[in-house]
Amino acid sequence: MIVELARGMWTTLRALFFEKKVTVQYPEEKKPVTARFRGRHVLNRYENGLEKCIGCSLCAAACPSDAIFVESSENTDEKRFSPGERYASTYEINMLRCIYCGFCEDACPTEAITLGDNYELSFTDRRDAIYTKEMLIVPVPQGGEPTPQVTEPGVYTRSVPEMKDPVD
Ligand code: SF4
Ligand code: SF4
Q: Where does ligand 2 bind, in terms of residues with CB under 6 Å?
């Protein structure tokens, strides 16, 4: 019996003093996620602050769990949110429905919606699981302007920018 006790104590002491600690002090300390991790979505902006989302609803159509709701409105040069004719006046994702498949990201023609590295999602009410455009959109980049912007006529006629093919 003494032998078993000593063996048990040795196992504990060895782990305590000689083995590399694997415990992460979450939430103060966070482990980095993998490069292709799919976490909470973000709605992106261009460098000048204009929103990349053009309210086309392709993401909503591609979503297998019907988690996305988009309502679009018309842009004008006096009140412009995004390049082109339309912008998303309402954009919502029901995070309780989302299965983080990334189909919305793949379907988006402007790379407006991307799945980021944030996995800290918790709700105590079903309504809190609906993330609105205001919650999803990234801050205005440095040097950019908030939306809506007043823009020069004839400059932002194209909804989808020229883009290179993705590499991965
Ligand atoms: S990640 Fe998949 S399930 Fe979630 S909103 Fe996008 S398409 Fe829908
Ligand atoms: S996020 Fe992309 S696919 Fe969805 S409405 Fe906006 S532009 Fe269209």
A: 53-59, 70, 88, 107-108, 110, 112-113
